Fold:
Amino acid sequence: MKKKLTVSVLYALSALFLLGGILMLIRQYVLLPGSYTPPTLTPAPTPSAAPSAAPVASAAPAPTPSPTPYVKVAPVRIYFTAAEVMADILPVGIIEDGERAGQMDTIDDPDVAAWYEPGPSPGGPGNALINGHKSWKGKIGRFSVLWDMQAGDEVIIEYADGSLAAFYADSVAFYPYNAVPDEVMSLEGESRVTLITCYGEFDRQAGTSEERCVVVLKGKDA
Structure:
């Protein structure tokens, strides 16, 4: 009886270890998006035509309007609408110490993306940089959705003031981690949003993944 009980316990423990291993594999290689609330883009109201005014003799010329100054509003959330995955966004700067000094910082959380605050905000003039993890501490990251994106895929960004803006994938590219073109990280040029994450096997000697997945977004009218 004692022997049968011992065998039963061993079978139960083996089943628990197997289940635990399966759960760890799912956590590491399968993205579990969790709750997703789709954003609602509210179209801007169509301005109504102003009534025609009677001509005024010797009317003074209308003053030249001043250009509206660019106001940088921080992005706070990104939505990958096709994948039904969203991630919060936090601002970061440059890493000042260690082996990665001089590089754009990241957020140590697989569910949170990082926006390079010294650069443009998405939709502003120049290149807005946002990165996210493919995985972190054994959990697959939200930005792993970049791997399967295709040109034309929609991404919506929410801002701190509650506004939303739609962008569309213009290009999806993969580069060796040490051969990413300079223009990918350049803040200059046309208005665009560059999303970056890791890809491929982990290179222990380099301390990072072998490749980078880079998705460039542009607005509808860009």
Observations:
- The chain has two domains: 1-30, 71-222.
- The longest helix spans residues 2-29.
